[in-house]
Specification:
alpha+beta; single chain; two-stranded antiparallel sheet; two-stranded parallel sheet; 3 helices
Length: about 80
């Protein structure tokens, strides 16, 4: 999973891509490293809903797309 969204220290992959592109430097991104980008607010909403519903057990939560780092970087660039 690639977790994205606001991050105070701006150290996640989203910020890395944005900083690299805004500085007009070349960005190298793996085509064989794949994950599911997942928005932090979606994780938080799921967590709060689970608490409200008193859900127990182990849950897997992730975005619905399986992308390479390259494809994810291209989406960010658009």
């Amino acid at each position: 999973t690639i977790v994205y969204g606001y991050e105070e220290k701006e150290k996640n992959y989203l910020y890395t891509v944005l900083k690299t592109l805004s500085s007009k430097k070349e960005l190298k991104a793996a085509v064989d490293l794949k994950a599911t980008p997942t928005f932090t607010k979606d994780i938080a909403k799921f967590s709060f809903d689970a608490i409200e519903k008193k859900l127990y057990g182990t849950y897997n939560f992730a975005g619905d797309e399986f992308l390479s780092r390259y494809d994810y970087a291209c989406r960010i660039a658009k």
